[in-house]
Design a protein that fits this description.
This protein is α+β, with helices and mostly antiparallel strands. It folds into 4 domains: 98 residues, Winged helix-like DNA-binding domain superfamily/Winged helix DNA-binding domain (Arc Repressor Mutant, subunit A), CATH 1.10.10.10; 167 residues, no CATH class; 109 residues, no CATH class; 54 residues, Alpha-Beta Plaits, CATH 3.30.70. It is 47% helix and 12% strand. It contains 22 helices and 15 strands. Helix 8 runs parallel beside helix 16, helix 11 runs antiparallel to helix 12 and helix 17 crosses helix 20. About 7% of the residues have low confidence. Component of the general transcription and DNA repair factor IIH (TFIIH) core complex which is involved in general and transcription-coupled nucleotide excision repair (NER) of damaged DNA. It comes from Dictyostelium purpureum.
Amino acid sequence: MKVFQYLTTLDARDLEDLYKDSWTCQAIVRSLPPRAKQYIFKMLMVDTYPLTIAKDWSQHSSNHQHKEALKKLFDLKIILLNRGKQQSEQSIQLNPLFQENIKSALVEFDKVIFSNSSNIKDTNKIPNINDLDNYSKKQWEQVLYFLSDDAAQPSKFISDLLLSSNLTRRDQDGSLSITSDGFKFLLKDVYTQIWTLLIVYLNDLEKKRREGLTQGSRNDLLGFLFRLSFLQLGKGYLVGELTELQKEYLICLKQFGLIYMKSDASLFFYPTRLIISLTTGKTLSLIQTLAVDKINSSSNSANTVASSTIEKKESGYIVLETNYRLYAYTASSLQISLLSLFVKMLYRLPNLAVGIITRESIRTALIHGITADQIIDFIRHNAHPNAVNNGQPIPDVVAEQILLWEQERNRITYTKSVLYNSFPTTDCYHATLKFAKEQDYYIWSNDQLKTLVVNENGNDPIRNFIKKNFA
């Protein structure tokens, strides 16, 4: 779920509170599809619009897009429905608060959010855009590295978020290990990953607010995020202009790579490309412009692979042979760490890591909750272009063997159950057997021994059934 999907889950009171901030309203308009934007500006200068006329805003051929645009606006409580006594009297209108803020934004287009450092000398070295890109990439890769490497020690803030989002679990020895959801998380694009953790943070913040543990709120943080997305890349902004709560949020966002600060006590903060593009919806082009490490191959230019996880992968780096040997053309420690979840790594060269898929390496991954299908999809998703062009991103023999190794662990299933073997009469046994089957509690029975095994959940209902009918 990304932010604007998340907003549709909030109640009308929360949305009304968010719409008090003009920057939030502008960020939402900026994220909407063109047709939804068109409807907003069509209604901007009128109080109400008859619903019968609104239905004719689109031609029949684009009726689906018309309904989708209206649904999005209704879900976000941007368009409100006025119900009349008859259907022909129904009308729609823009949310008055939202409408007023968009009007103001069109007039005050040069409004300043935070003062930048143009007229104030920053005593620290001012980072350029390339520095900011490299910083955000490094910071976010560290978050992902915590998922793929049990030995890595995340900060308490990141650790709590990963646990709350069920991306990691705490083992008996107190260490964190990746879950099946965590492995799926690693395959998603960077903006989905960031919003996944931010939404967990937002929900935790709201829960603490209701319990009286913090003065901050979910809406405060959302409004702050929307404001930050309007800042200029490469410019520094004064920390002193922020509220105490916003300063706390700033330190948290720094751990995601969304904000750059020389130290927690710095006078200036610098938004990175990630925070500026976080609410624009233009993730693909922006991800592709992030600085990436390129691996130069001296023998074959086809082996040049982008090694950054923060980049939208257009080409993979994995070559897997039928002898289960895997070659990873990458210098990224993060990508090698991901492979180590299900591959026994043998050795590593500057531009190449070599490993082998074994029964034990797959079993280790399965124990951590990673499924065979996820492993196969990961290899296929990250297959080297040469392997893809040859029609074998993953050899069939290897894929089938991985599935067989998973089936080995699933040959026996355990179910908590209750055994009944002291029925007073044969009629009681047969009646109870019929009842257990009808209620889907039945597991096993033996008519000669008058023995019945049922699911643990059926223990109390079956005991009550016997007492009521045969006591």
